[in-house]
Amino acid sequence: MLGRLSKLINENNDKYLFEYDPLSRLVYERGFDGKEKRYQVNKLTGRLDSVTFVDQTLSFQYDIMGRMTKTTSADEVREYDYDLNGRLTLAKNPTSENQFELDALGNVLREIHSYDIFDHHVTKLWRFEYDELSNLIKTVRPDGKEVDYLRYGSGHLHGMLLDKERIVDYERDDNHREVKRHWAQDMLQTTAYDAAGRLANQHTQSGKYVKKSILNRDYQYDGANQLINIKDSRKGELSYRYDPIGRLINAKGPLGEETFSFDPAHNILSKEHSALSTYHHQVENTLPSGISKVMGNLLRHIAGSHFDYDQRGNLIKKESAKGIQTFDWDGFNQMKSSTFRGARAGSRLDTQYRYDVFGRRIGKRVVDVRTKEVLEQTLYDWDGLTIASEDRIGEQLAVQAQIRKESGSEKRKLSSEVQYLYEDGEFVPLVQYTNSATVGLGYGSFGGGSGGAGSSSPAVYHYVNDQIGTPQILMNAEQEVVWEAQAKAWGDTIISAPVSDDGVINNHRFQGQYFDAESELHYNTFRYYDPEIGRFISLDLIGLLGGLNNYQYAPNPVEWVDPWGWIRWKSARSRLWKNEAKINSHKYSERNINRMNKGKAPKCRVRIETKNGIKEKDVSLELHHTYLPQRLGTDKAHEGWNLTISNPWAHESMDSFRHTGSKLLKILKSVKSW
Description:
By secondary structure, the chain is mainly β. Helices cover 5% and strands 48% of the residues. The protein contains 4 helices and 53 strands. Strand 26 and strand 27 form a beta hairpin. It comes from Taylorella equigenitalis (strain MCE9). Keywords: Antibiotic, Antimicrobial, Bacteriocin, Endonuclease, Hydrolase, Nuclease, Repeat.
């Protein structure tokens, strides 16, 4: 009657149901898997009071201005406080407290992170400085190290310093794209692009006068702009084939050949791995009639593994040839613990996880159930949504090092603080460093408090990444490869024996992913990803905004990334903004051109009206999927012919699934003047 969406049917003919109250507010959902969710809306304020699952309820409280002040689950309370301007200044839960000091423009000047986990109390102090355009120019980290960002123009990065020592310099072309990267130890990486603006070559070399090639990668694309071939000087040739809607169906490389088949809803149904070079086109569901491996996008069986889920769609049990794994989840759908009982008798691990008020993981403890020994204990600190450091205590798991040698891997005694720096504003790791005078880390205490070893000279290791930001090698100051990886298509990784064994461990995988040895899962900021099956193991926290299939990682892992575990992002869309900056630079301010050259959307400043009053804010332009909806999950939906650039309110007028929750009153600064 009112044009409200009441039923959504996916490609497998599963049904997603919606119900509303008389004021058209959503009050009930039943997902494709039949799992239910109810929304309680306050009749006076219209605000959401609670969300109820079959086995859990989340409740919300607000202040008089409509700002959320408390979120409560059965096992956790999260609290928030604001300044007079409505900006967040305090956020806490039982294990963490985060305090923020901001300047008049809303830039964070100081952050204090306090953690109480595993009987330890730790405080981390962060300080930040900005230029007149609010570009970050300096960070003073909790270990006392200073990171300087050297910029030109409206904020283009041309170098970074660590305690006044150069760690990287950039050279850029006329479109501000990186063409050369100089590392401090006479290492050089050159980057070349083809006529369409696509990455064509990456070449890493070492040596001050005579350059020695370390890694060279050539990239080749088909007529649909899909990456089909990589020639890697260390690994050999890698090739990829896709089905008509951009899903990866075949990958060949030094680890062999893999083929994949999907059901119509983009669930991977089968995966085969062999050393044969024969290509097999497998797109359709090859299961016997009447038998389904997937029910409502819940994967039940694949490649000899079996999976069980709870009432909210979270994986609670996985049985495979390696053993039995179980997982426990809290009211916020965060993994609280995992257990592993290996096929080998007596092998059992129990792991506890802790999170801060924002859902970022801040602690992990791995215990050998048989001996009661703490094998690993790690504290994580964060810079925004990137892991900034990890303080490790205990005995590093042998599987985590994963150095495949004929003699086998040995467990490593590990007691260290490792720091990470990333590409400017990105999730791609740039540098790993360890302080040579790290505070002693005994079992009873974590290191890395405020200003621990600021005056010491750190050991610095440089990441060399692939076309989507996945680490390929790690190099030390002597220009030696100390870590190297080979991976199957969906991220299952084998670590090669290094040329120089510095005892370096790298757990970064796809962008935003961190390898957990105890479960062999990848922690993906707000979810967990299983590289063995190429999908997430819990529902997407942003629901249908992340696509119709909440467990899908991406149509293919060659061009797509999902750093938060929320919504996948294709490199082609990043290229669209880069190409727009090149073709129509006269339409945008220099500040926006800087954003677009990084693959980010341009911004404008607007005045809007919300239910809480009139406010001004900066908003990004959006891409409307004109003919093929993004919700379909098809790769073709993100090609340029299907994308229309618009502001959020124009997007809302074109897409019934886009809701801004506000009324546009005036554009104060256009994309040309922002």
